[in-house]
Amino acid sequence: MAHQLSLNRIAAALALLSTAASAQQLPTVSITGRSEAPVQVGGFGDTPVAKLPLQATLLGTEQLLSSGINALSGITALDASIGDAYNSQGYVSYLKIRGFDLDNRFNYRRDGLPINAETALALGNKSAIEVLKGSSGIQAGTSAPGGIVNLIVKRPTLELHSTTIAFSERGTAELAADLSHRFGSSKAFGLRLNASTAVLKPELRDAKGQRHLFAMAGDWRLSPDTLLEAEFELNKQSQPSQPGFSLLGNKLPDARSIDPRTNLNNQRWSQPVVFDNSQASLRWQQRLSGDWKAQVHWGMQRLKTDDRLAYAFGCSDADGSYWASSYCPNGDFDQYDFRSENERRNSDATDFSLNGSVVLGGLRHKLSTGVLFTRFWSRFQGQAYNWAGTGNISAVPRTTADATLNDANTNRDERSREFYLRDAIELSPQLNAWVGLRHSRIERSSYRVNTSDTRATSYEQSFTTPWLGLSYAFDSQLMAYASWGQGIESEVAPNRARYSNRGQALPALKSEQLEVGLKSGSKMVDWSIAAFDIQRPAWRDIGTCGSAANSCVRQADGGARHRGIEAQADLKWTGGGVLASAMKLRARNEGSASAGLNGLTPANVPETTIKLQARQQLMLGLQAQLGLVREGAREVLPDNSLQIPAWTRLDAALRYEHAVGRQLWVWRAGVDNLSNKRAWKESPFQYEHAYLYPLAPRTWRASLELSL
After folding, report:
1. Alpha-carbon torsion 500, 501, 507, 513, what sign?
2. H or E segment to which residue 223 belongs
3. What CA–CA distance (Å, rounded) separates 197 from 200?
């Protein structure tokens, strides 16, 4: 199986393919401005980011490599609007944009098609990561309002034969190959192979694991007007995950007294979380008359997960008190044996689209329209969630495993049909109007596994989400814009006896975003500044919500309002440059019938964030790089009674490239958390429990990339 490729087999395959390579011109590797780059996630075809009335970030391969990023959670160091939302090593990446947690089921795309991100997403065969900031209704039927993340798959290019060997502290080692070749009499066929294997030995103790990737992409240029593309990806990650620390009673522990390398998942019976993923797509593009183009794009995703953890949660104190949202004041915690194995999550998506331009009423319209069909289903077996004993954050005693599957999981089925229409209207050489409309129909059902199924639910809903924008170009380099859009979230009331509206579909909640901004792009600097106002309604349980029947009702009650200003700049000069971004965010709860909730800041949302990456050439081929991340204080509890302090992290790196014969050698070395700063990185509040994740300790990394 491709999942089981060993280091030696990949090395042997790479050597064979490299021997067959012909001499090619050395590639130029650099970090460039992003203003002229088109983004799929914007929804308006090949229109550059600088010309769109929205904020989007494009993170390319070189930027990810130079920053040592090999998991999606790593991009939180590169853009001020992107933050951590519960990022545990060895587990799923959770992100927030503009203070809102993304929904891993609905806010992620792969080459524009919906995917499920409840897994470890591989980056080795991705050429870029696109991030749309703000209202996601233009691109998604249902989703959280923060934005959309789109992964771009590497496709065949000109001749490329690249090998990368990477190491980091304590023994993590990775070998990767990236090979591309075009063949045929007119180079009509192209193939690209990405393969990697890694042994994971992170700074976090008791977290050894492994990661493998094998991906192939091909294309066939049947004619100048017809392109057929196909690709598949197999990846697997096996690694114990990291439970969070917590409050000690009602006090915040000093991060300087906590060893960030401590892993509370360190029992003899602890097992790794295993993510086993298969993905594939087929895309046909046909150029029609004029500049019209038709496309059919199909994609599938098959996820298998074994989710296992020695789980620390809450604490039963010696005096009989139970700390539900924290650990005991002395550092004790209750440990549970959690296992949910053979989880299956399958997704299919097919998109039919047509885009081009036409003159109507004397105005030029760039139109894009299509229909998207998606299907998702999840299948689980019973799960274990059993008390195993008592642990402590400083010296974890041995506890007893109990893998009895005594808790029911929930299977889900979802289908959706979405019609969309987008139009960019040229009102004058300087003024453009932007219109988007998406109509969605969803069908969802769920039922509990291995039970009498008294909690089954099923419902259907339809809704329409509009998006409007207006942009004015003062000149070829400066543009002002305003935009407004809606997003949708849909839910059903839990089918439990205490809910008077149990099993009923709740009215779909519409979030709204208003944004105004300025954008400028030149050879020396690209910059933008935007002010946004996002309002997101929320559901809440009203009533005593005890064990009595009909004691609770789930209904819309207030919501969150996030208002902020974000700015970013890409400044370039001979031999260097700076990528910088900053965000000032005011996030508050508003409009609740419970006055005590209004005016509070959501947990784990910093008010001020600054991200910076600077680079400067020191001599021919040698470049120094410096990264800075500054995040403000965050609330730990929903009642805002405790905060974690602000923190600043510095990263440093060197990049050296030189030619050896016909090969380009690129050496990269870096140190993350240069000053070995001790701090609480984030404070997610989930399942009525406060979690604390420490900043990773100082860690060095190095890699060598050879390209022919």
Report:
1. positive
2. strand 209-223
3. 10
**Mean residue pLDDT across the chain:** 92
Beta strands, E only, 50-117: 55-60, 82-84, 95-97, 100-101, 108-110, 113-114
One-letter amino acid of 436: G
Amino acid at the residue 110: R
Which residue is it, tokens 């993340």? 149
Predicted confidence at residue 453, as pLDDT, reads 67
Beta-bridge partner residues of 89 = none
* DSSP secondary structure code for residue 248 in this structure: B
Q: Which residues pair with 484 in a beta bridge?
A: 468, 514
**End-to-end alpha carbon distance in the chain:** 28
Whether 25 has a pLDDT exceeding 50, the answer reads no
pLDDT > 90? residue 487: yes
Percent helix, percent strand, percent coil in the chain, to nearest 5: 5, 55, 35
pLDDT of 546 reads: 86
Q: Report the alpha-carbon distance of residue 294 to residue 371 in Å, rounded.
A: 12
Q: What is the mean pLDDT of residues 559-582?
A: 96
Q: Does position 242 have pLDDT exceeding 50, yes or no? A: yes
In degrees, rounded to 5, the angle at the alpha carbon of residue 560 between the alpha carbons of residues 558 and 566 is 160
Residue carrying the six token digits 């009102």: 427
CA 349 to CA 456: how far, in whole Å?
25
Does residue 22 surpass a pLDDT of 50?
Answer: no
Give kind and range of the element (H or E) at residue 61: helix 61-66
Q: Name every residue whose Cβ is closer than 8 Å to that of residue 475 and which is 6 or more positions away in sequence.
A: none
For residues 203, 205, 209 and 211, what is the CA-based torsion angle, rounded to 10 degrees?
A: -30
**Average pLDDT, integer, range 211-234:** 97
Q: Given the structure tokens 């005593």, which residue do they identify?
A: 544
- Token pair, residue 20, equals 């067959």
How far apart are alpha carbons 333 and 336 in whole angstroms? 10
Q: Which residues contact 452 (CB under 8 A, 6 or more apart)?
A: none
Distance of CA 8 to the CA centre of its chain: 32
CB 484 within 8 A of CB 512: yes
